[in-house]
Amino acid sequence: MNFTADRLLLFGATGDLAQRMLLPSLCALDADDLLHDDLRIVGTARSGLDDHEFRNFAREALEKYLPANRRGGMADFLNRLSYQPLDATTLEGYDDLAAKVGTPGQGLAIFLSTAPSLFGPTIAGLQHAGLDGATTRMCLEKPLGTDLATSRQINDAVAGAFPEDRIFRIDHYLGKETVQNLLALRFANLMFEPIWNAAHIDHVQITVAETVGLEGRVGFYDDAGALRDMVQNHMLQLLALVAMEPPGSFDATAVRDEKVKVLRALRRVGTGETVTGQYRAGAIAGKAVPGYDDELGRESGTETFVAIKAHVDNWRWKGVPFYLRTGKRLPHRVTEIVVQFRSVPHSIFASKGATMQPNRLVIGIQPEENITLSLMTKVPGLDREGIRLRQVPLNIAMLDAFVGQHRRIAYERLLLDLIEGDQTLFVRRDEVEAQWHWIDAIRASWGEEGLTPKPYTAGSWGPSAAIALAERDGVSWHE
Ligand code: BG6
To answer: 286: buried, middle or exposed (CB in 10 Å: 19+, 13-18, 0-12)?
Structure first.
């Protein structure tokens, strides 16, 4: 049923995500008049705050995480907020929570940003208090399980109370502007799609490099590792968007139908097709940083870096490797997709001494949002000593192309879509399960092979074996 929610219930309202992303995103939407006047936001968490204290908490978060020029109307936004303390593990407090939420005029959107162990009890509590009606949407934040089995348990628990068309699973990468732009690039232009296949593409690289380390997330990260924290969700979603067939339309069913086909076509990763690493003390941007085990306070076998050579087994991508890599404490923060085209079939300039490089498309997602197509051009001159060709970039910097347009936090888009009920940028159950299926097989192979993370110095591009993984195929990582 289509409705715009006029109540938003935030579980985990005093948590890190709420402070850094959710409250700032909602306030920014409000400042741009994108929230309906009637929308009321109820926060809940264990802390015993009252409405006033929660508003103060929210104000501090906004002052810290939202740029001053996007805080217009903050007082009005804070007035939308109220708070109800809750121990989510027992049924007792849910009636009071329901009373605080009141009866929505249109509908209720619930955002669960809590530990997955609380999902089951929370759903039971919501059902108990009648907060699971036909005009309630449920939004889930990662991690949704630690493997296929646990993700199914979570999905089953949620499906017991909400049908799939009211479940919104967040992958915040889908809320990023340039990620959506990838679809515009592919499907709103004529020139790429005819050559977007194994006949013309040599390989694809997807890099998500971070400079941050553990960031105090000791308990969570050490149990997850880079494969489950970044590849299972964000990187596989990027891969799916690069590799999918053109959907019939930009709607939730069509887009997700195409993504899931790609995820299901991922070949089981073979021996020697993954490299894992863990950072040791080093320096980033000239500043000394400790090693992972120092940050953690003990030794650990968790990978903070992973590189994978993946394959999509279908007609379009036959024989085209997708090199994926992600890691913490790498030299700089960059998320990018590199599409390396093949060489022209015959060089008419070879007899004139010219050398050529194949075309390459680089889609920069962050921090720079840009699209760069490298083309071969002739170096100006009279060519008496032969023709010289050089690669030059055709470069679109999105910031320059759209001066004056807000660069929005990914959660702004996703929260608005949740409130309005558009699932296109949310992950469907079959996608999540296909992702876990592939990831579980990788983890099983690591166990069988006794693979342990190789050390790398913080500030480097990961273990040298990751470079070798690509170079064996004559490929260099784009840096
Ligand atoms: C999260 C991971 O999902 O994504 C973090 O849990 C990671 O470990 C973060 O740092 C990266 O997000 P972004 O938007 O900063 O690239």
So the answer is: exposed
**455 Cβ partners below 8 Å, 6+ apart?**
277, 278, 279, 280, 463
In tens digits, the chain (479 residues) has pLDDT values of: 689 999 999 999 999 999 999 999 999 999 999 999 999 999 999 999 999 999 999 999 999 999 988 887 899 999 999 999 999 999 999 999 999 999 999 999 999 999 888 999 999 999 999 999 999 999 999 888 999 999 999 999 999 999 999 999 999 999 999 999 999 999 999 999 999 999 999 999 999 999 999 888 877 899 999 999 999 999 999 999 999 999 999 999 999 999 999 999 999 999 999 999 999 999 999 999 999 999 999 999 999 999 999 999 999 999 999 999 999 999 999 999 999 999 999 999 999 999 999 999 999 999 989 999 999 999 999 999 999 999 999 998 888 888 878 778 899 999 999 999 999 999 999 999 999 999 999 999 999 999 999 999 999 999 999 999 999 999 999 98
Sketch out the chain's domains with CATH numbers. 7-141 (3.40.50.720), 174-406+428-471 (3.30.360.10)
DSSP one-letter string for 15-67: SHHIIIIIHHHHHHHHHTT-S-TT-EEEEEESS---HHHHHHHHHHHHHHHS-
Report if pTM > 0.90.
Answer: yes
Is residue 437 annotated as part of the catalytic site, yes or no? no
Tell the residue nearest (CA) to atom 2 of ligand 1: 229
Distance 227 CA to ligand 1 centre (A): 12
* Residue from 52, 128, 200, 234 carrying the catalytic annotation: 234
Find out whether the beta carbon of 210 lies less than 6 Å from any atom of ligand 1.
yes
Distance from residue 444's CA to the centre of ligand 1 (Å): 24
CB of 141 closer than 6 angstroms to any ligand 1 atom: no
- State whether the beta carbon of 229 lies less than 6 angstroms from ligand 1: yes
